[in-house]
Amino acid sequence: MSKTSTTQSVKTTKLGGKVWLCAILFGLVGQIAWSVENMYFAKMAQDIGANVGNVDWGTIVSTLMIWLSAIMATGTTIFAGGFIDKMGKRKPFVAYGYIAWGVTIMLFATIPMSPATETLGLIAALLVIFDCIMTFFGSTANDAAFNTWITDVTDSTNRGKVNSVMSIFSILAFVIVFVIGMLTYDAGNTIAFFITLGVLPIVLGVVAIFVMKDSPNVIKNSNPNYWKETFYGFRPSVIKDNKMLYVCLTASCILGISQQTFFSYLINFITNTLGITDFILPLAIVIVLAGVLTAVTGILYDKFGRKFFYLPLVLVVIVATIVIYLMKFMPQNTYVYVIVVAGTFMLGALLSGGGALMSTFQDYIPKGSEGRFQGVRMCFTVLLPMLIGPLITMIINLMKMDNQSVDYMPPFEIFLAAAIIAVFAIIPIIFVMRDANKLRARKLAEKEAEEALASAEAVTEEEPVEMDELTPVCTCGVDCEGACPFGDDAPETTEEATDEDEE
User: Fold this and answer.
1) pLDDT digits over 320-359, tens only?
2) What span, in angstroms and rounded, lies between the C-alpha atoms of 400 and 154?
3) Where is 500: in which H helix or E strand?
4) Residue 119: DSSP 8-state
5) Average pLDDT over residues 124-138
6) Is residue 455 very low, low, confident or very high in pLDDT (cuts 50, 70, 90)?
């Protein structure tokens, strides 16, 4: 493999329409289901606490839900990923997992919003249990099975595009759930809200049964020791042999922590801190423009390589978050314009960078271990960011508590913290960039070898084997060299001829 092939544009592998359809449908609906949990499960606990006059109860329960859900998601993905590799199948886990996922979302429709005070303990237990059950099925179906399927059906020449599109879905799902929530939940109809959003995964699970297909190149893990293989990605020897995979995930983890310091507080920051009450249009503009930026960079990744984009994207995140922090010193009439411009670049860079790092992580996964590494990914991209990011924000909130009014106003300083944290992502990204050419060359060589092998197998199956034409051998028993003196009625063997002579 020449060096130029790793740095110049290469031909990307085209994905079939059915693959794109499955990636879009299951990716989007999966993010919608997660958005229900991230946006409304904790909000439901807080609203119930407010309705019964016990705000502390709502805060404690919502915090427990966030923490236990993150732990459940990571643990489930670790065990489910190993089991999926052992079974050598992804489709059944996606299909039936999405159906169960939707049913568990509907369970929240049974919880009353204004329960009796003496039932608060039971309600708290049900909220936490339902959330953990929902997370179990969601992590099995989406985090473990669907993400493994994406790794199976893509390669190093098209993963950037696919993962960039997938990263947009988290924001698009946020808007969809928010709009449905305004029409149902905010109007007091929580039953319609949870049933509507529970139906979507159920329908997609049924669709998966008929539409989704596993990659024919899936390698089944035949190791009989399932429990040992479950923690495959956490073995010191595996970490040593695949160190760049963990360096790549470290970069994703740091950017995730940076994002989690402010992402859950965006709505309150815009409405309460900035005082922008009509935020739907500015938010829509930011999401659309960030989505376009993410899609364009995804195409460029696959054409020219991702190494050229890592550092610029991190720098954009740092600059954009600092600009948002500096709004603290700007006149209020500039807030809308600054938040649209800075928000677009910040969100677009986060999504694009996340998509690039996810693609590189998938490139680093050893063949046949796709499922077992999904739990490792969850530790770096979900568990640690969700634990550390909100903790940093809580500390900042406590320090700024004296400046708060009646409404919760997230301080500008959370964006300054996000910028400082993002700076540390530059260190692992430099190592990822240095290894990019070797990784790209290796993956392209593997792709060419697979194509050559498939082509050779196709030729072997389709073309008949040519054999030399054989000279007919006469069976008359005489060395007649084709001029048989017995004609067409010659006996077949010498013994038969002798018997006839004796007769």
Assistant:
1) 999 999 999 999 999 999 999 999 999 889 988 888 898 8
2) 47
3) helix 494-502
4) G
5) 93
6) low
- The model's confidence at residue 79, banded by pLDDT at 50, 70 and 90, is confident
Selection from 214, 95, 220, 98 nearest residue 153 by Cα = 214
Q: What is the 3-state secondary structure (H, E, C) of 400-439?
A: CHHHCCCCCCCCCHHHHHHHHHHHCCHHHHHHHHHHHHHH
Burial track 29-50 (b if 16+ CB lie within 10 A, e otherwise): bbbbbbbbbbbbbbebbbbbbe
Residue 298 to residues 16, 164, 309, 359, 499: CA-CA distances in angstroms?
18, 5, 10, 10, 85
**Cβ 130 vs Cβ 194: under 8 Å:** no
- In the chain the domains, ranked by start, together with CATH numbers, are 16-230 (1.20.1250.20), 233-435 (1.20.1250.20), 467-502 (no CATH)
Could you give the CA distance from residue 410 to residue 397 in angstroms, rounded to a whole number?
7
Residue 402 has pLDDT above 90, yes or no: no
Beta strands in 186-338 (DSSP E): none
Of 310, 317, 328, nearest to 420 by C-alpha is: 317
Which residue's entry shows tokens 């293989």? 229
| Closest to 5 measured CA to CA, from 301, 303, 451, 441 | 441
Q: What is the number of other CB atoms lying within 10 angstroms of the CB of residue 410?
A: 24
The answer to whether residue 405 scores a pLDDT higher than 50 is: no
pTM, entire model: 0.71
Residues 373 and 81: beta-carbon distance below 8 Å: yes
Q: How far is CA 383 from the centre of its chain?
A: 15
Q: Which is it for the CA torsion 260, 265, 266, 267, positive or negative?
A: positive
